[in-house]
Each structure stands twice: as C-alpha cells, then as structure tokens.
What does this fold into?
Amino acid sequence: MKLGRNIFGVGLMTGISRIFGFIRDMLIARFLGAGRLSDIFLAAFRLPNLFRDLLGEGAISAIFIPMYTDMKKDEGFAKNVFSWLMLILLCITAVFEIAMPLVIWALAPGFAEDPGKMQMTIIIARIMFFYCIFICGSAFLSAILNAHSRFLLAAFMPVMLNIMLIVALASSLLYGNGIILYVMAGTVVLSGFVQFLILLARIRQKHFGLRLVIPHWNGQIKNMFKRFLVSLVGSGFYQITIIVGTLVASFESGAVSWLYYSDRIIQLPFAMIGLAVGTVLMSSISNALADKNMRSIYIQQNYSMRRSMMLIIPCVVGLFVLAEPIIRFLFQYGAWTSESTHAVAMAIKIQCLVLPAMLISQIYSKTLYASQDVNTPVRTSMVSLAIATFVYIALFPVIGYLSIPVGVVISGYVKNYLLGRVCRKRQLVKTDKKTFMSFIAFSVISVALGGILYMFNITSILSLMIAIGGFGILYLPTAFIIDRYIIK
It folds into this structure.
C-alpha cells in the first residue's frame, strides 16, 4: 500500500506538471507556430535538457541513491558529492559556452542552410545552458529527498518551469515577438534557480545542513565516479536517441517541431506512470537489496507491473485512435496549421506503441541500478542507440521524419528484451503468472473499447473529453475487478 501511495503521489505531481507543460506548449504553438522560431527554441532547449537527464536525473540518481542507502545515508558523503557535482557543472558550462557554435552545428546541421537561424540558435542556447547548473543540482537534491522517501516536492518542482514560461509567453503581448526568444531563454534559467533554492531549503529544513565544502578525493568518491562514468554512457540514451533524431529531422522543414510535440504527448503517460514507478522503485528496491529481501523485491516488481500496465495499455490504444483530434484541439490555433496537426498525429500513432516496452524497461533498469550493476544498462542502451540510428538513416529517404518514431519503437523493444534477459538470468526479476494473465486481459479490454472509440464522431473538444472520459469509466473498473478478483 505504501508503494502504491508513493507511486500515485509521484504520478499525480508529475501529471500536474505535465498539464501546465501542455498549456505552455499550446502557447508556444500559438505564438511561435511549428516553424523557424519554434525550431530555434526547441533545438536550443534540448541541450540543457539532455545534460539534466544525463548528469542529474539519470546517472547521478542511479548511482548515488544505492550507494547513499548502503552507507546509511551518510551526510558527509552527500556534501562531498554535491560539491564535486557543482564544480563539474561549472566546468562543463564554461566549455559549452565557448564551443556552442560547433555544438549547435552538430545538433542541428540542417540549420546551416539558414545562417540567421543558426546564429540565433547559438545565442539562445548559450543563454539557456546556464540552466544546466541549477537543474542538475536540483536533480541531485531530489535524489536525496527520494532516498529519504520524500517524493512529492521533487516530483512537483518541474511545474515551476512551466508556470514561469506560461507567464513569459503571455507577457509577449506586451513586449512583442521581437525579443520573445530572449525572454523565454532567460525565464528557463530563472526557473532552474528557483527550483534549486526551494529544494535546498527543504533539505536543510528536514534533513541536514547540506552545503558546499572543499571537494576531497577518497575511496567512496573514486568508486562513485568510476560507476558514474560507466553509467553516463548509457543512462541517458533515450534522450540521446531523441537528439540523434533531431539531427536527422533538421533536414526536413518543421520536422523538429513535429517530433517535439509528438514526444511531449507520448511522455505524458510515460512520466505519470513509468517515471513514477521508476522513481519510487529505485529507493524501495535499494532498501530491500540492502536487507537481502528478494521476496519483497519480487512482490514490488509484479505489483508495479500490473498496476502500471493496467494504465499504460489503454493509453496506447487511446493515443493511437485519438491522436489527430487531440493535437487539433490542443494546438491548432494561430500559426499552427492542419498539415502540422496531421504530421504530429502520424508520429504519435507510431511512437505510442513503444510505451509498454519503455515502462517495463524502467522496472528492469532500476532493479539493475539498485543492485549496483551499471554495465548492463549501458550495454543495452548502446545497442538500442545503434539500432535506432540505423533505422533513422535507412528509412529517412523513404518515409522522412516518420523514420524517427519507427526507430524509437524498434530500439525500445530490443532494449527491453535485453534488460529483461539479464534480470531473469540473475534472478533479480520473477514475473508471476497473474502478471502475464493481467497483461493479456488489459490488452483485450483496451482494444475492444478502442474499436468503439474509433467509431465515435469527435467534432469538438467537448466530444473529445466525453470520449476519453467514457473510455476510462468503462475500462478502469473492469480492469481493476479482473486483476483484483478474477485473475489468481
């Protein structure tokens, strides 16, 4: 029950953040459209987001939480890691500020065909890269709170970015579009600073006086950085896959924006369900492994699989059937065209198919990281990236930007298979019969209701809400009863 409450709480906070994120994206679509200005902002914004995932929410969390738990939550260790992290972030920021023209050229080479577009992207990226210092620091602070089973504040923090960007976009009516990209870039940096201060104040109030100290090298830090450098290669490969997709898509006008918005839609159910499960399981499985309680691990894994798949499978069916009306009523205003709506919807219909694999991979990878195995996730991520890149390049001349979601789906299932094989071989995962039967039941119910949903005539946002609400009202009680009382 405690596991379920924590997952629900993190998912709820993440959902609130994503709702504000959609409002933000609707305003971006309204004021910037899906063309030159949005391409500049979104391409520049991917860079600090990548480093946040690699250095903060990815490698640092995966390595720090199990070690911190094993060391009985030692304060001195946390302060030393915090100090090393901030020093490294300052050095990285200095390097990228200098090398930004080369970085942007590598990230979006298609922009070089428009020198003005390339130059503006470099300027905006230089401003926003300072966000890395604060948001990676915030991710580390969140890891400390998660290790102490305090999940809600950290899960809610991303809403600060969305609220502040909404205010900045709304204010563009006053200052005009001439400086809108500069205002948005500055707002991104400010939001990171605000998140950092809030989390630091919370830790110092509830746990201990976390502060910067003179970084010192010892066996603990050496061991952590050894694992960190290995994990760094692989923990953010989903984000790297998206970056590579951006590089390929930059050769098709508007494709960077289309893929961004489709990924935003796909990330909503994954963040609310998959990331919530992964965040909570990282701490709970680390504690169970420290106690050598494998039975507790298996129970947590199967419970998480059933509850999360109960929710993610209908999301796949719903997104596949309703992709076009969802995008039309969310974004088709102002500068946004019907062609952009169709392009984004097509990407969603393909990419939503990877959601079950992404969710189960979260459980496998968090289990491996909790067992302090960083090599397996790295190897599987490298294989996944290689497959995705091959698909991108091979299919782009044939189907254009749709090669990116196709590559994401294929590589996602390969990664899931490889992670699961290793976990089962080491007896870190045991999926019981009830979990398999529940998966089948959820799929059958979802597809049947999806067929009914397909025939529903959606002509307004009200009818869209009725269709989604009706689907949920019919599906959720049925799935819950079957899982709880019928399947044994």
